[in-house]
Amino acid sequence: MEYQYVIKKEAHLDRTVNIKKLIGKRVISKGGTVIGYVSEIRVNSNNLQLEGVVVDRNFENPIYIGKSYFSKLSQNSVILNVELSILVNGKKVVTLDGKVLGRVKKVNRRGNTNEIESLVVSSFWRKYLIPSSEIKQIMASVQIKHKHDATKIYLWKRLKQNSNL
Amino acid sequence: MQQKSISGRDLSKTVTSEDLLGKEVIDLNGTFIGVVEKVLMDPNKLEFVGISIDKGFLKKGLTIGKSYISKVTPHAVFLRIKVSYNIKGKTVFDNEGHVIGKVYSIELHGNKNKIINIIVRRGLSDSLFGTEIVIPAEYIKDIGENVMLNVSKNKLKKSKSVVEV
Q1: pLDDT exceeds cutoff 50 at B68
Q2: Which of A28, A29, A98 sits opposite B76 (nearest CB)?
């Protein structure tokens, strides 16, 4: 089909993506994790800019991801430029000397950004609060910078820090 | 009981085979590879050569040379590499999020951990590539939960270094 164009500075049709075709497409993180499928495309009603996408995940709450975290938008998928910090839940936490502290129970983020403020780590007996400054790397597991001296949260401290836990 | 020593060296900072056997092995990615099953020594030079890892029930073991071992800690053995064999079975996406297939096999540089090519297998329903394609390592952008390529599906088809099997 031949199109007639009425554009000023906007990109040519060939260099744009049909948003409608994105619905139902995969959302993939930087490392190839399939996060879910696009259920909604959100556009700013004032400046008509694409703001983000809502990602549907089976049996989990959907995620609204802002375009700042997009690496590429194609007809087939949305590829992100990060690994989502909210998906760190459940990962093993390992100290510098190889001891498994527990598993990540909750991720405390800075506002609604992808940046981690702290992690709540839970083992059979205890809970720990690991600030982001103590985290060495987050990949298949979470490695913390120090040996087994993470802050233990005793019952009386837990009552004070309930908001973070 | 204090032991007597005629080694002529300070052995206080050494480790024994007991310190290694049964310990978790963690690679650079934070992936738990398995547990140390054997400690390997050169019988002529009497040198530590490497370790053999038990990856679990019905899984093939893995032998790691000492040059790939970063440190031995009280709870685990850390590697300085991401084990290439772990890439098997991962889904391969192109740079637009198309599924190319799953990693069926890898070609390494001799017995080293360096990948030369990955062999990707597609389902019989896809007639674009046939059943298997050999993709050089230079096309791999990132390896996380899956494999992300830095080229598109179309470019792979045209590339001379990509071979259909």
Answers
A1: yes
A2: A98
| Mutation site, A30, A33, A94, interface B, largest B CB count within 10 A | A94
| pLDDT mean over B74-86 | 91
Q: Where are the domains of chain B?
A: 17-82, 85-164
Q: Work out the pLDDT band at B1, boundaries 50, 70, 90.
A: low
Of residues A28, A30, A139, nearest to B97 (C-beta): A28
Q: Domain B17-82 belongs to what architecture? A: Roll (2.30)
Residue A109 lies in a domain: yes
Of B29, B98, B147, the CB nearest to A140: B29
Pairing of strands A26-28, B140-143: unpaired
Nearest to A15 by CA among A78, A80, A73, A79: A73
| Chain B residues in contact with A78 (beta carbon < 8 A) | 97
| Domain tally, chain A | 2
Decide if pLDDT at B163 tops 80: no
| Sequence-ordered strand ranges (E) for A25-148 | 26-28, 34-43, 50-56, 63-66, 70-73, 77-80, 92-94, 100-109, 116-122, 127-131, 135-138, 142-144
**B96 with A77: Cβ contact below 8 A:** yes
For residue B161, the model assigns a pLDDT of 67
Pick the CATH number of B85-164 from 1.10.540.10, 2.30.30.240, 3.40.1440.60, 3.40.50.10490: 2.30.30.240
User: Above 60 in pLDDT, residue A19?
Assistant: yes
